[in-house]
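Data availability (excerpt). The following record was deposited with the supplementary files.
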Amino acid sequence: LESNRQWIWLLVLGVTAIAVLTAAWLAHVLWRPVENLRVAVDELAEGPEVRLVSVEGPRELARLADTFNTMAKAVETRRRELMAANRRLQEEVRQRGLREAELEAVFANAPVEIWAVDLAGRYTLQSRRLRERCGDGTGRTPLELALPAEIARAYFENNRRALTGEIVRGESTE
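Predicted structure:
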């Protein structure tokens, strides 16, 4: 009886040890891929660098890792596309600024009265000569300037015609 009891305790102890070792091994096998995936998700959320995870472990975890890698590659592709689009837009803004500066220089130094208006008929650019004669009209229509009423109406009407695409010739300012 005592001998059987010792064998039973040894058997219980052996089974318990095997169960503990098996549980530890399973935890390691399952935990490592899940932890790697968690770290990769955190890195993807925090920074520009994309780290792929190894596709290992049980089938479901391997599929999850593979799906994550597919998503991470797509995120990286979109990030690169956005960066390229941002660089293109920055260059376009720079080029537009240069063109605007050139246009403003032409208007500022033109020996004749020239101007540009927006779609509402408000002056956006004026030559120095026009400013000297009419004052700064930026943001105002010809009707709002200190011009004789007949000339202001003629300017306003000619601007309206030009904005519809008509070529206006022979405008008199005197």
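Summary of structural features: The beta strands are 115-117, 123-126.
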